[in-house]
Amino acid sequence: MHQQDLAQGYGSVYLPFALEHKYPHADCEWIWQFVFPAERFSKDPRSGIVHRHHLHESGLQRAIKRAVRQAGVQKRVSCHTLRHSFATHLLENDYDIRTIQELLGHKDVKTTMIYTKGISYFRARDNIVRSEMPLNVLNRGGRGVRSPLDS
Questions:
Q1: Is residue 99 within 8 Å of residue 143, measured between CB atoms?
Q2: Residues of the chain by 3-state class (helix, strand, coil), percent to 5
Q3: Which residues form the Tyr recombinase domain (predicted)?
Q4: pTM of the prediction?
Q5: For 87-121, what is each residue's pLDDT tens digit?
């Protein structure tokens, strides 16, 4: 979609004023493009430039609810459920708790440690000592999650 928008002259995104002036062509770079772009273009009232903006959070929430309903899932699922699942899966795969803290944007690692409670329960249920899990995760160090953009 981004390449198509660039070809049509609409490949830029709205950036805060200071960034727009500091990095004049950053608005067309891949790194600034939205993960969930809007279907339609919109006109920036400040500059008059036509951009593709990001999908509004309520639109994403509706899309998730619709997908859950169509999939026949009976449990409540939200955007936050996906965030929680992401963190839980990282913990299950022994990723470093500090990396997960950073990815989730938590200021205090105690907030991130909440995710270890469920993991500890399931590991204990599977005959793994509960107290091993947090130390195991805390001592992993250096095994962070890499984005394709980090390459």
A1: yes
A2: 55, 10, 40
A3: 1-130
A4: 0.54
A5: 888 988 888 888 999 988 899 998 988 877 766 55
Measured between alpha carbons, how far is 133 from 113 in angstroms, rounded to an integer?
11
Q: Burial level of 54, CB count in 10 A (0-12/13-18/19+)?
A: middle
Q: Is 125 exposed, middle or buried (0-12, 13-18, 19+ CB in 10 A)?
A: exposed
C-alpha 2, offset from chain centre: 19
Question: Using one digit for the tens of pLDDT, what is the confidence trace for 28-65?
Answer: 777 767 667 778 888 888 778 888 777 778 888 999 99
Hey, what are 11's tokens? 């490949």
Closest CA relative to residue 81, chosen from 107, 31, 110, 118:
118
Q: At 72, give phi and psi (nearest 5°).
A: 75, 20
